[in-house]
Write a structure and sequence with these properties.
heterotrimer, A alpha/beta (389), B alpha/beta (415), C alpha/beta (262), A: 389 residues, alpha/beta, nine-stranded mixed beta sheet, two-stranded antiparallel sheet, 14 helices, 11 strands, 37% helix, B: 415 residues, Rossmann fold, 2 domains, five-stranded mixed beta barrel, 15 strands
């Protein structure tokens, strides 16, 4: 009989930080992460020396990992982690940090994800992304994630009848959200007509289905509630989290993620249902994955996401607010920071510190993580339910 | 349906020639396990000896039971295309230049999903396909999904032209057009659509039976090419190397001596001078031009074929010095392959057993007929393989050599 | 001081004595004798650069060459044939050097050779020639002029068909006659051998080699420019390389002729 998982007691997240993105940067990832840490210190008023836990995610830090960064940033910690899970690094970083604080192994943990972007960064990173990709996927067309997600999109469209306009509706809504986000890289509105007319990148993936890789950083602090109150910080409570890796390995093509296996536990641990959730931050590289998350986190049945999308308004003030700052699709994907973008936006919404559009009466937020196409499917999934104070 | 390839127009001489760039070529060592079969035209995947699970991508231990006893085994390749895309924007120059490029996910027997190039004649998913392992222009093994049954002009598909060295519409040099094998090669190449076929005619005063007929073929152009003469090779290369798409080096001297049957080194030297140094001279003079034209359009420079011998792998003592010269050529051909690799020109090494000619007169059958050998070579160019072991003896020796080379050493000495 | 030698030097300098080069250029294109494939083969001339003012040697141009002793215009010593193998001083390094200079009798068979590539020089033909041009002197070279060197195309020069080579040469009787009755120093031809192309089928096979070398005499082949020599009166220099126990060598054959003699 499986032991019941421990809850999160008084663990809270505070100090949502974004270092504004840049399309290209001559700086190293150390700069972006360092600036995020510096901003966490400044915004929270907690001294750097009082931060005794550090969790880092980055694709462009090599040859350094968290330990090299510690010396680079002059940080002494008693808990250190490096989470190389891409789009799932926010949720997983939160899970690691929360247990560290809960057990007393650390008092205040800084979670930061940041990447630089040089002119050839993306190609270099993609060509050497993983052994399986390098051996068995990249040599076939070198399409990178565009091709990988095109396969999933092609399959999903064929089997479940999703139409381009369904994906377009999500992209258009996210763009509307992004117009209010100061650091979003996309500044112009997007209509469905423009979306449909945009050129194919890797059929059926269109131009506006693709994120813009860029440089940037996201970060937050994890601590006990009493520490947050001690420093006068607005906070959001962690109700429940899940993670799963390499689920459904027998599926010929990915059409569902590991969330399916753990969602009952997620909602159970939080003591809520999908209907109670006020907004969702999904991992949106690419739009088809949004649909998988709507289905696999229980908002509609498998294969019903197209109908769900058609039936809802998806802007921050719509019937189903999602990716309320614009998501990676309209804000930009700053490497691993894309895996924290949703979590940081969740904290902003729940603490009333939004930079852009505010979800009305936001009390409960769901944030999902998805990432690491090691070969032909995203291996790492996770989710967290956070509540306003 | 694939449109038949049209004969390309003459090259515009004022335009810069597109230089070859390879597709992504990095592979782990275990992934190179697919290359042995692919180089000979076979699809092989790892199968766990303990639980029979098929593995893909290639890996170090079984994905089911973690056993490390994984063996590469031939696969049928009969599968289903389950998803596809048309890559219009690639991260690599090679695919950028050849966009759009069709690729897809195929489900194969053994519950593996493979990423494969997809032939234009394969219907939209879900569609039955045959998956083959081909060598791409980096010389690496890649999977290609073909239509369930052959379609008209299937070889003319863009992806197939990139994977193969089809002689159709290509210009070919046969370094020795006089021997029975050479003559058979010329005929087979002309039948496969090669034009022109330059034919080497060293020692023109020696007239071999059947050669007269070859000289009359309209696509044939005679050259006084003597691979033992540096100046001859240099001059001929100076004239034609910039136009040659396929070099077939079939010059050979074959004598039937070991060490003790013939005093002196003259016969062995004659063998080395043609079989080994001939290759070296040709490669030095023709290599640079071929390498520069590895991506030069429909009829790019695409292959260098070496007629070696199965005795290159393991010495056949009655023809000991001949075997040694072929072993030297085999090693040099590997060097040539390494030098050609970055440019997409495929070095095709052919290892026949005894050919049915005058030097193998005393050997009992099976022997490979010159026409059969020529067909095997043209077939290898069409299918894009790079290691060819044609005929029963070659296959037999190869199996014995792979199984236990020391046993073959003994068996070769006591036929 | 020798007045003759001084006069020779002065006539050479003054152009009253001409030097005619009877030598073919050594090049990879020049044909070499072809034996049945089971036999050992004579190497054709091959040349490969050592350097050419390049990174292999910035200041120099030079080559390595390879050839057999019987490649190009070459000299045959008695040791070359089985019939001469035991004779004294029979190798190129032991032949007395005074044998390398001597008068030449040039017998014109060009018309006959043109009509019949298998033409064989006979005693009768020689005697008719002597009637016009006087007797062949002792220790003279007999050069068989066939104009065969004018066949620039190697195929025509070798002149093979399914029954072998067809080039002119001496018959067995005339060789014996020249050795026994005329005491010649050697026999020279423009073709690839001193013997006719079909000489394998004569009795004995290769009679020029057999009888000349058997009598300690010499051979010259692949000569050219014999048409520039007078029938009598030329003096030729034919000194092979001094190869230890060598059977022959390529060499420069020079003829001194009076200017205006042809």
């Amino acid at each position: 009989m499986t032991r019941k998982r421990q809850g999160y007691d008084d663990i809270v997240v505070t100090a949502p930080v974004t270092i504004p993105y840049a399309r290209f940067s001559i700086r190293g990832a150390h700069w972006w992460i360092g600036r995020a840490l510096g901003t966490l210190v400044k915004d929270s008023g907690i001294a750097k020396d009082a931060i005794d836990g550090f969790c880092v995610s980055s694709f462009t830090l090599a040859p350094d990992t968290a330990i090299g960064l510690s010396e680079h940033l002059g940080l002494t910690t008693r808990w250190l982690d490096f989470v190389p899970l891409g789009g799932n690094c926010g949720v997983v970083g939160l899970r690691r940090a929360a247990r560290a604080v809960q057990s007393g192994d650390a008092n205040v943990v800084a979670c930061v994800a940041g990447d630089t972007n040089h002119v050839d960064s993306f190609r270099q990173g993609t060509a050497n992304f993983s052994r399986f990709a390098r051996d068995a996927a990249y040599p076939i067309g070198a399409g990178g994630p565009n091709a990988s997600f095109a396969y999933l999109t092609d399959y999903y469209m064929r089997v479940y009848g999703a139409e381009p306009a369904d994906f377009g509706k999500m992209c258009v809504a996210q763009r509307e959200n992004a117009l209010k986000t100061p650091h979003a890289l996309f500044k112009k509105p997007l209509t469905l007509e423009e979306y449909l007319a945009s050129r194919m990148i890797s059929d059926p993936i269109r131009l506006f289905d693709c994120v813009m890789p860029c440089a940037g950083a996201e970060g937050f602090l994890v601590m006990r509630r009493e520490v947050a109150e001690e420093h006068g910080l607005k906070y959001s409570r962690v109700l429940a989290t899940i993670e799963r890796h390499n689920a459904f390995k027998g599926d010929p093509v990915q059409f569902r993620g590991g969330w399916v296996l753990d969602r009952d536990e997620l909602y159970g641990q939080a003591g809520v249902t999908p209907a109670d959730i006020d907004f969702v931050q999904t991992y949106d590289d690419y739009p088809v994955i949004n649909m998988l998350q709507f289905e696999d986190l229980g908002f509609c049945a498998k294969g019903e996401a197209p109908a769900f999308v058609r039936a809802n308004t998806l802007t921050y003030n719509g019937s189903f607010p999602f990716n309320t700052s614009g998501g990676q699709l309209s804000v930009g994907q700053a490497g691993a920071a894309g895996g924290m973008l949703g979590l940081v936006e969740t904290i902003r919404q729940l603490t009333g510190q939004t930079l852009g559009g505010k979800v009305p009466n936001a009390r409960l937020g769901l944030v999902c993580g998805f990432g690491m196409i090691n070969y032909d499917r995203g291996l790492s999934t996770g989710a967290a339910i956070l509540a306003a104070a | 349906m694939t449109a038949p390839l049209k004969k390309p127009k003459r090259k515009n001489p004022i335009l810069r020639t597109r230089l070859p760039v390879p597709p992504p070529s990095a592979r782990s060592r275990v992934a190179l396990g697919m290359l042995w079969g692919a180089a000979q035209g076979r699809l092989e995947l790892q199968v766990c000896r303990d639980c029979a699970t098929v593995q893909y991508p290639p890996r170090e231990v079984c994905r089911r039971c973690l056993s490390d006893r994984l063996d590469w085994k031939p696969q049928s390749g009969e599968g289903e295309l389950v998803a596809e895309t048309l890559i219009r924007h690639s991260l690599e120059l090679y695919f950028r230049e050849r966009a759009p490029w069709r690729a897809g996910l195929v489900r194969l027997p053994g519950d593996v999903t493979v990423v494969a190039h997809v032939h234009a004649d394969v219907p939209r998913p879900a569609a039955r396909v045959r998956v083959r392992a081909h060598l791409d222009r980096a010389g690496q093994a890649v999977l290609v999904a073909l239509p369930e049954k052959d379609t008209p002009n299937m070889a003319d598909d863009r992806i197939m032209r990139e994977m193969t060295c089809d002689p159709k519409f290509r210009k070919v040099l046969v370094t020795d057009g006089k021997t029975a094998v050479g003559q058979a090669l010329v005929k087979a190449l002309v039948a496969a659509g090669a034009e022109p076929v330059w034919v080497g005619n060293a020692e023109p005063w020696k007239n071999f039976p059947g050669f007269e007929e070859i000289t009359k073929i309209p696509q044939v152009s005679l050259l006084s090419l003597d691979v033992t003469d540096q100046r001859s090779v240099r001059e001929i290369a100076g004239e034609i190397a910039g136009r040659v798409d396929i070099v077939i080096n079939n010059c050979e001297v074959h004598r039937t001596y070991g060490i003790s049957q013939r005093y002196g080194t003259d016969a062995a030297r004659a063998e080395m001078d043609v079989n080994y140094f001939g290759l070296l001279r040709l490669a030095q003079e023709f290599g640079p031009a071929l390498r520069a034209r590895g991506a030069d359009g429909t009829n790019s420079a695409v292959a260098w074929v070496n007629l070696l011998s199965i005795y290159a792998l393991s010495n056949y003592p009655p023809h000991g010095t001949f075997s040694a010269s072929k072993a030297a050529a085999h090693s040099l051909a590997q060097c040539l392959r390494a030098e050609m690799r970055p440019t997409g020109v495929r070095v095709v090494n052919v290892y026949p057993g005894p050919i049915d000619d005058e030097w193998n007169q005393l050997l009992l059958p099976p022997k490979i007929a010159p026409a059969a050998l020529a067909n095997a070579i043209v077939g290898a160019l069409k299918s894009g393989v790079e290691d060819v072991y044609p005929g029963d003896i070659a296959q037999d020796w190869l199996a014995r050599w792979r199984d236990n080379p020391k046993a073959l050493e003994v068996e070769a000495a006591n036929p | 001081m020798s007045a003759t030698l001084m006069q020779l030097a002065s006539e050479l300098a003054g152009g009253r004595i001409r030097v005619v080069d009877l030598t073919q250029t050594l090049s990879p294109d020049f044909p070499t004798i072809t034996l049945p494939p089971e036999m050992g083969q004579a190497w054709p001339f091959r040349i490969e650069e050592i350097s050419r003012y390049d990174d292999r040697g910035p200041a120099s141009y030079w080559n390595n060459v390879s050839f057999s002793e019987h490649t190009g215009t070459h000299f045959d010593a008695p040791i070359h044939w089985i019939s001469g193998r035991d004779l004294p001083n029979n190798a190129v390094d032991t032949i007395p050097p005074e044998h390398f200079v001597g008068p030449a009798a040039v017998i014109d068979c060009s018309a006959e050779s043109k009509a019949d590539p298998d033409f064989l020089l006979s005693v009768d033909f020689v005697k008719k020639w002597e009637a016009k041009h006087s007797k062949i002197a002792p220790r003279a070279w007999v050069l068989m002029r066939t104009d065969w060197s004018k066949h620039i195309d190697p195929v025509a020069y070798q002149n093979f068909d399914e029954t072998g080579q067809h080039t002119p040469g001496p018959d067995p009787e005339v060789v014996q006659f020249l050795v026994k009755e005329r005491d010649v120093i050697g026999f020279g031809t423009e073709t690839i051998g001193t013997d006719a192309g079909q000489a394998f089928h004569l009795n004995p096979p290769y009679p020029c080699h057999y009888y000349m070398h058997g009598a300690g005499r010499y051979g010259l082949q692949c000569l050219t420019n014999l048409d520039q020599l007078p029938a009598q009166g030329a003096v030729i220099f034919a000194a092979p390389l001094k190869i230890k126990r060598g059977s022959g060598s390529p060499l420069r054959v020079l003829a001194l002729v009076p200017a205006g003699a042809k």
